[in-house]
Predict the 3D structure of the following.
Amino acid sequence: MSKSDRIVITGVGLTSPIGDSPAALRANLLKGVSGITTIETRFMGEVFAGVCGFDERKYQSAKDRRRGTRVGSISIYCANQAVESAKLELGGDGVDRSRVGVYIGVTEHGTVETENEIEVIRQFEYDTKCWSHHHNPRTVANNPAGEITINMGITGPHYTIGAACAAGNAGLIQGAQMLRLGEVDVALAGGASEAIHSFGIFASFASQNALATGGAPEKASRPFDKSRNGIVVSEGGCVFVMERLEDAVRRGAPIVCEVAGYAMNSDAEDPVMPSAERQVECMRAAIARAGIDAGEVNIVSTHATSTEAGDLQEAVAIRQVFGDYAEVYVNNTKSFIGHAMGAAGALELAGNFGSFSDGVIHPTINVTEVDPECAVRNLVTNAPRKVGPVRFVLNNSFGMLGTNSAVVVKRYTA
């Protein structure tokens, strides 16, 4: 593979319920720190949620923040942090801003703003004169990516990728494809979510009996555990700076890792029930694109959301793909941060980058007793595990309507 075909990640910007930088996220994953708390939600009272604490005003004026959205603010914070960490200069003698593409994965968009506007006009006898003139730009699907371009003066292409909870991976995949096509020279790609600000998301999961309830907040998200009882909804974001290897080397960029392979497919069966068979096909396709055998994967970063059926189906798929390999380890990040929806795939991938340098795998926390039906070989639980050199990480993200994604990244070697 030539350097023009090799795609690398040179910067990472993120915000999560356990940290607003890659270093903070990694440290808390290794310490076993949960970021789940309770919030008050319209019509539902207290619910478990993962809340981010980043500074909205770091890259935005008060006026710009009022005009925009929470997910736009999350995206702007992550994109600016990513560019800074990549030591990338936009404009001037640096990268041409018209050659930068912005690709942000989202699970949904516009729900929060619409719910808020309806709440306002309800107090004024549904007089639409009280409806905000900012509503349309706030709710168009490309909003998060578009807010980045306005904030950063980027004139290249931007759009969002609607891929349900596979969207974080899908954003990265889109960035890699556009770089390989030569359409852009830099991709700002990843995912973002403001899901906790929508009561409808909580209400819908509750009506499906898929929302976590009971007990202490920090124990609420417990993938693969026998007592798991549902999803913890979270907000968050993660944006990667992606470049062709030859461009990154030319400018002396810090290289985090290389994108080795990826795949997406569809279940084509049910709106909410996942298909282990299609997940197997997706993982195998990503591994094949990476040009490796399944046994060469060191870490499988699972999608598992703490639902009964979802965790079980993914466990079945993992056993089929990796069951015979003793050196493949499995972990989960949602046990720490909950389900960050459109941001989940990108955040969970970023949480494993540290393993390339320290050879340590962060655990899945809150596992008191593994559900026998979810048992997978080398599931790392409750404490980090030192395993030595890590070369490949496979990151799973699956979503409603049967959209599946898998991304393989590798430790960079020249």
